[in-house]
Write a structure and sequence with these properties.
GO terms for molecular function: DNA-binding transcription factor activity; transcription cis-regulatory region binding. Keywords: DNA-binding, Transcription, Transcription regulation. It comes from Terrimesophilobacter mesophilus. The protein has 201 residues and is mostly helical. The protein folds into two domains: 61 residues, Homeodomain-like (Arc Repressor Mutant, subunit A); 121 residues, Orthogonal Bundle (Tetracycline Repressor, domain 2), CATH 1.10.357.10. The N and C termini lie far apart (69 Å). The N terminus is likely disordered.
Amino acid sequence: MTRASATARSSRPTGRRSGDTGTRDAILDAARDLFAERGYEGASIRAIATSAHVDPALIRHFFGNKEALFTKTLADRTSLPQRLFESFGGDPAGIGERLTDTYFRLWEDPDTQPILLALVRSAVTSSLAADMLVDALEARIRSQEDVGPIDEQRMRRIELAGAHLLGVAVARFVVKFPALTALDHGTLVAEVSPAIQRYLS
């Protein structure tokens, strides 16, 4: 083997790293950075694999497709879930207003709105991505101290609140219903938060 061919071989992704967990973490870290830098469309599987120093086939092995990888990355490698979970701390009587305010601010933020839009689109077009999102978010919810103990009834109430907020967000920011886009942030929170409070309390 020539020195040039040996060098070329050593520079290629070698596949599995030290254990599945290390490989998955490397892929998720690379995906987080590239999705943030290039957006969903601009971050290819090959580019993510190159950044993580793995073979592209390993991404398909662990995550199935780019939609599922994107969903898993958002759940595990961004601050979006944590920012929402922080709303559960404090006076229980104000949880509906805090959560509603935080959620719609994320949609209004030009840095986070593209991520949320891409998340919605990937989850509704890929059943695998949707399943992975649900599993990842439920695991994160159960692990958060601010959220408190989670039984089946509490999880159902949290999911109802999330479904309500998501529906309003899609109507306002994606479909752009005129009556909803006309509302300022404070009015929107005031209209929606009583229902979210009822779900969660």
